[in-house]
Structures are given as C-alpha cells and as structure tokens.
C-alpha cells in the first residue's frame, strides 16, 4: 500500500464537477456513442454461472467405502451401502455455506454409477443400497430442487471398469450415459469433465495399462455440442475452451489477477490460473478445492477438515478474484456430511453473510469525475447487476467517490464489472481520505465478475474512491461496496521438530491448548499452555482441543504423527541427498532419476534403527520440482530385518491424483509388516517425466 499525495486542485475541480452529475441529468458533453463490448464476452450460460459465484462439489461413491481416492474399477458393487444416506442433509450443509449449486460425482474414474444406468451393471442397481432400487443422483437432484440449489453432474471420461475403454465403443457408451443424466434429472447447470485420463485399470478384467490421446479420442467439441443440445444452459468444465476452465490447482487459489479470458493456444495450469488479458476466448476459471485433504471421505481425515478461517481465505482467493468456487463436500459411509464439516461450513457461511449484511456504503452519495448519460455514479450502489456507471466517450481513467456520510470502519472492498461489455479495466486503485489527504489502500489488476479485496487491517474513513488507473475501454462498473469482515481464528498450529517435539500454538488470546495422546477427548485436565511437548517415541497425538477461558474444551483437531525419525538413516538410494526425505522439512526435495545407473526403478532404503510394525506410509509430494521432474505415480515396498531386502515385493499401489493435488498421500498396506528396513521404489512418474521429486516420507505404525 502506498500513500498518494494530498488532492491537487485539479482533483478538487474534477470531484466538484462529478458531484453535479445527478442521475438523469447529463452534463453538457458530446452525444455519447452506444457502448460497444470490448473483446470476448460471456455467453448467456456463462453469465448465469458467474452469478452463482460459489457451488458445492460432492465426491461420494464406492471410494468412500474402500478408503481410496481413485478406485481401480474392480470393486464389488456390494460394498456400496450407505445406511443413512440423507440427500437433504448434504444439500443443507452446502446451503449453510451459501453454495448455490451442487455437482455430484455421478461416475468417478472407477466407473461405478450412482444412478441405475441402463448401459452397465456396475451401478447402484447392483448394490445393497435400497435393495438396488436407489438412485443417489435422483435423490440429490430432488433435494437440490427442494432447497433451491441448482444441480450439476460430474461424469468421469476415464472409466477403469469398462471393457471398451480406449476403443470407439466406449465413446458411444459415454454419450449414452450423458444422455441419461441430461434427460432424467431436470435442468442441469454444469457438466464437469475431469481431465484425469487413461492409465491402468480393471477394464472388464483385462487389468492393463490403456493410454489414450484425449482430444481426438473424445472429440470434445461434439460431446460439448451434445451437452448444449440437451441442456442449453449447462456450462461444461472442459479442456477445449467451451465454457469453464480449470484454475490450475486444487488448493483454492486463483491468480491475482485471474482474467476470464484465455488465448486459443492451448491450456497450461499456469495460464489457467491467471487467464490471458485480451485473450480472444471467454473461458473463466473454476476453482475446485476440497474441504478435506482428499476428495472422498476418509476416517483418518476427521478432525482435519478446513477451518472456517481457511475457507474464508479461499473465498477471497477465488470468488474475490473473479473465479467460481467449487467447494467439495465428502459424505461419509453413512451418506452424510460429518458434524465437524457441517460446523465449519456453517461458520464460514455465516461469516460471509454477516460480512455482507451491513453494507457500509448504503445511503452514501456517489459522485464521479465523468459519467455517461443514463449511467450515473449512483448505479454502483443500487445492487442491480445490470445497471452500471460508465464514463464519457474516450475517458478511460475516471474516478468515482463515495461519501459515506460519516467515518466508517471497513476492511473489505467489493467491485464488479458489467460482464456483457467485456473486461475493460486493466488496473485500478482504491483510496480513502485520511488526515486531509487521500491514502491508497488497494492497487490491483483486473476487476471482472467480482473483486473482493480484504485489506491487511480495518481502516476508518468517510470518503472512499475508486480510481481507474488503466483501461482498454471506458469502465462499466456495477458495484462498489465496503464491508467489515468478521475475524475467524485458526485452530492451533501444530509443528513437530527433528527431535520429535510437538509444538501447539494458538492464535486465540486467553486460550490454552489441550491434547491427549491416548485417543481420549481433551478435557480441562489435559490442558497445557503453549510450550513444546515431547512426543513419546512411537506415540501418537490423537486429539487436540482449545481450552476456552470458560473452562470448556472444544476438540478442534485430530492428527496422527508418524514415529520419530531421529534414529532413521538412509541405507541406499538411487540418487544423493536422500536424507531430505526424512529431514522433516517439506521444503527440501529429493530429486532422483526414474531409472538408476543399473537400470532399476528409482528407490530408497531406510534403516529405522529398530524393528517396527508398519501399516502404511505417507509421502509428501515434491515442493518445487525442478524442470523435467515430476511426481511418482506408483510404488512398491519391501520390508525386513536384513538391509539387503532380497525378498519379493510385499505391497504395491498407485499415488492417486498426485499430479493435481499436492496434499500428503497416505498409503495403507493390505496387512501390517514388521522389520527394521524398508525399501520404497517408484516405477513410474505421473506425467512420464524422467526424474521425480519427493519432499518427505513418513511411516504409519499403529
Ligand atoms: C481430479 C480427479 O482425479 C480427482 O479424483 C477429483 O475428482 C478431482 C476433482 O479431479 O482430476
């Protein structure tokens, strides 16, 4: 934030002149030409989608019951048995967070269908759910209708169950499934086509690797056309620039700025994140992010769902930057959202509602340095998305000032452009009056469908001014508001150093931290004040709570930590610096060639110092993989008491979704193994890279 000089005489004259611009009374100025849109503009379906701002994703399928993120495709439909499925409870949780639409994973990569498709046996119709008479998609569509949410579909193009996947016959099957989903469940607002495609799978029993060239194989333009024919208002989340693009990460972070336009030269995650200013295609970003580490529910993530404060940050980093937020909810094996997640969603939703409940600019006097007849400054305050303020022909850098009547305290500024006229503003600043002068408090690029900027700290001022610093066409601004955001506290931060000391610190004044190591619920008796606590060797911090000043303890988190690594050492590794894998620092990566000097897959062998029973391991993907290095896609494990580990591979598996989601991967063995030495090998990388990068490896020992 930079301070700008006191207002000049020229500013004062401009302000005075602008104050005279009353609604309906134009200043003498040359006849205004009709405003023409600048550059690419949204279609009707995209405009409707922009106005929804934030929606729910729901990941629920057979994976919920197998504790996986990606199913292989050979799962028995008999496993799918949500005994207490409650579509209304799920939709209510979404509503509590102000989410306006809901997209269900009708079919994830494993191919299991949540609706009774006529084209496969791999569906709810062969599950115990309602004795095969249930239809999860239908029940959710109904609940959405009852509660006023729009409804959307996720249909995975990749199907690891279908025998014909990779051949033309599968495309016919895929279109048949789309037809069922788009004709049975009423209006659909979005169809989400996931980018993950091709790999190994069950494929009707073939159990093999199938690679496809996605763009020609699916013939996306014809599939998108098909969607639009059946559901003209459905936006597609697609890889070819039709309606909605991926924001480039699964962390809930849009670029700053995040332009709604893109060029037509192909997609990269970096471009998806920032968009392309002046690009010829209107292809806005959708930010899909989960309330938990994974997309599906896992018991071990209970207690780790995103806090309301974190959700609020995501709101500013996505909706506040003109991207659509697609926030994932993960029903558990009952078929409900856990109380913890519901609580976090509701607190987050209430915080956003409370923030907007008091519009501190209501009743303000709006004046502009330039205004076009019929589009006065006051239009930024009327709450109508179709009415806007704009400046006289050729005036690209006007200012608009709000006189709030008295000093008001705020820390949020909200602006919006009139999208049918395109993205016109390149750069803008917001100033407040302070000590008789103007002080700049915001300087950003791009406004778009919505710019909600949170200041570092609240400010108090009577006048607040929007300064258009650079624009490619006269700005068309529909909204300018100021608000005060509620303060939400983060739960305690948990860190653990090399010596195994766990430190819990709370931001909450007057609160102490309670924790237990035996799995019992924290109580006042277990309260400790912030300090390092030694973690017993092999022990697990099970539950963490905040000891409130009132004496009550509320459980806010559950974590389990792997065993201490201070006794570990690297026995051998395919490349130097493998100590980085066990240095407890997520920011130091081990980078190794996929194939070592002897032509063997990349591997590392660790000496744990003593024999330990292991039930799985945790891998933290590389922090900043260098050029040409990627994430591992598959793993094998050997465990024993002889460092040579000559026996057969005891466990093997894949790292699901690792390329898109950098959260720690938890891999659970089919049974516990005991030994002092463990070798983990990595036979392939996620995107065919010839080197891999890994930040950290831990073990699960209980
Ligand atoms: C990814 C998938 O592979 C994940 O499982 C999840 O569905 C996410 C939304 O998209 O590409």
Give a structural overview.
Helix 4 packs across helix 5 (136-147). By secondary structure, the protein is of the alpha+beta class. Mean pLDDT is 87; it is low at 1-30, 496-502 and 527-563. The two termini are 50 Å apart. Beta-L-fucopyranose binds next to loops.
What's the arrangement of secondary structure elements?
Layout: H1 9-19, H2 44-52, E1 54-58, H3 63-66, H4 87-96, E2 101-107, H5 136-147, E3 150-155, H6 168-184, E4 190-192, E5 199-201, E6 208-210, H7 214-218, H8 220-230, E7 235-237, E8 245-246, E9 261-262, H9 269-274, E10 281-282, E11 285-290, H10 308-317, E12 324-329, H11 339-357, E13 365-368, E14 389-390, E15 399-417, E16 425-434, E17 437-445, E18 451-471, E19 476-483, E20 493-496, E21 501-505, E22 512-516, E23 527-528, E24 532-534, E25 543-547, E26 553-557, E27 569-573, E28 590-593, E29 602-621, E30 629-630, E31 634-640, E32 651-654, E33 665-682, E34 691-700
The structure holds beta-L-fucopyranose.
Residues 69-70, 194-196, 288, 295, 657, 660 line the site of beta-L-fucopyranose.
| CATH architecture annotation name of the largest domain | Alpha-Beta Barrel
CATH top level of the largest domain is: Alpha Beta
The mean pLDDT is 87
CATH-defined superfamily of the largest domain: Glycosidases
Stated plainly, the CATH topology of the largest domain is called TIM Barrel
Instruction: Bin the helical content.
Output: 10-25%
Structurally, the number of domains stands at 4
Count of discrete alpha- or pi-helical segments spanning 4 or more residues: 11
Bin the strand percentage: 25-35%
General shape: globular
List of distinct ligands in this structure: beta-L-fucopyranose
**Unreliable runs:** 1-30, 496-502, 527-563
Main sheet summary:
8 strands, parallel
N- to C-terminal distance:
50 Å
The strand order across the widest sheet is 7-4-3-2-1-12-11-8
């Amino acid at each position: 934030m930079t301070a700008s000089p006191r207002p000049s005489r020229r500013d004062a004259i401009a302000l005075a002149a602008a104050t005279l611009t009353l609604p309906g009374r134009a200043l003498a100025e040359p006849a205004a030409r009709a405003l023409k849109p600048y550059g690419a503009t949204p279609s009707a379906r995209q405009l409707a989608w922009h106005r929804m701002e934030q929606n729910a994703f729901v990941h629920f399928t057979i994976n919920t019951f197998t504790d996986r993120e990606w199913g292989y495709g050979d799962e028995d439909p008999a496993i799918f048995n949500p005994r207490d499925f409650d579509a209304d409870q799920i939709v209510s949780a979404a509503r509590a967070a102000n989410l306006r639409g809901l997209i269900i994973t009708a079919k994830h990569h494993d191919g299991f269908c949540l609706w009774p498709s006529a084209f496969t046996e791999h569906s709810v119709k062969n599950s115990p759910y309602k004795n095969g008479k249930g239809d999860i998609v239908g029940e959710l569509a109904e609940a959405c209708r009852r509660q006023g949410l729009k409804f959307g579909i996720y249909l995975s193009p990749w199907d690891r169950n279908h025998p014909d996947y990779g051949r033309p016959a599968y495309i016919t099957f895929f279109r048949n499934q789309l037809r069922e989903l788009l004709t049975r469940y009423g209006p659909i607002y979005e169809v989400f086509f996931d980018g993950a495609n091709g790999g190994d799978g069950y494929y009707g029993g073939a159990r093999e690797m199938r690679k496809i060239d996605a763009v020609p194989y699916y013939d996306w333009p014809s599939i998108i056309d098909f969607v639009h024919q059946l559901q003209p208002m459905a936006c597609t989340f697609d890889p070819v620039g039709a309606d909605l693009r991926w924001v480039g990460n699964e962390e809930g972070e849009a670029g700053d700025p995040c332009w709604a336009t893109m060029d037509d030269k192909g997609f990269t995650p970096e471009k998806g994140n920032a968009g392309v200013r002046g690009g010829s295609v209107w292809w806005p970003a959708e930010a899909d992010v989960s309330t938990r580490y994974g997309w599906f529910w896992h018991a071990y993530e209970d207690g780790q769902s995103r806090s309301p404060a974190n959700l609020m940050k995501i709101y500013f980093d996505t909706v506040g930057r003109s991207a659509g937020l697609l926030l994932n909810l993960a029903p558990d094996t009952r078929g409900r959202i856990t109380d913890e997640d519901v609580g976090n969603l509701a607190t987050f939703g209430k915080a956003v509602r409370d923030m907007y409940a008091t519009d501190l600019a209501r009743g303000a006097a709006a004046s502009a340095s330039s205004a076009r007849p019929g589009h006065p400054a006051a239009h930024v305050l009327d709450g109508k998305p179709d009415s806007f303020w704009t400046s006289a022909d050729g005036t690209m850098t006007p200012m608009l000032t709000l006189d709030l009547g008295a000093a008001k305290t705020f820390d949020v500024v909200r602006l919006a452009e009139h999208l049918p006229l395109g993205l016109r503003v390149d750069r803008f600043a917001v100033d407040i009056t302070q000590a008789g002068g103007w002080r700049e408090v915001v300087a950003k690029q791009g406004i778009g469908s919505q710019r909600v900027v949170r200041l570092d700290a609240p400010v108090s001022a009577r006048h607040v001014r929007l300064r258009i610093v650079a624009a490619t066409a006269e700005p068309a601004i529909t909204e300018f508001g100021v608000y005060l955001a509620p303060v939400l506290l983060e739960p305690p931060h948990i860190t653990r150093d090399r010596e195994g000391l766990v430190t819990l610190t709370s931001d909450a004044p007057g609160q102490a931290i309670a924790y237990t190591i035996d799995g019992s619920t924290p109580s006042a008796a277990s309260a400790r004040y912030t300090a390092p606590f030694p973690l017993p060797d092999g022990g697990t911090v099970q539950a963490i709570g905040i000891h409130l000043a009132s004496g009550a303890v509320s459980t806010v988190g559950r974590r389990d930590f792997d065993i201490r690594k201070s006794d570990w050492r690297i026995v051998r590794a395919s490349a130097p610096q493998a100590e980085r894998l066990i240095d407890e620092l997520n920011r130091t990566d081990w980078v190794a060639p996929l194939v070592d000097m002897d032509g063997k897959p990349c591997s590392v062998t660790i000496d744990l110092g003593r024999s330990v029973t292991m039930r799985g391991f945790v891998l933290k993907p590389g922090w900043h993989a260098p050029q040409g290095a990627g994430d591992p896609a598959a793993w094998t494990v050997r465990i024993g008491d002889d460092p040579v580990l000559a026996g057969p591979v005891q466990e093997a598996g894949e790292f699901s979704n690792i390329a898109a989601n950098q959260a720690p991967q938890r891999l659970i063995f089919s049974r516990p193994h005991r030994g002092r030495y463990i070798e983990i090998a990595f036979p392939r990388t996620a995107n065919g890279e010839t080197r891999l990068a890994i930040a950290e490896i831990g073990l699960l020992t209980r």
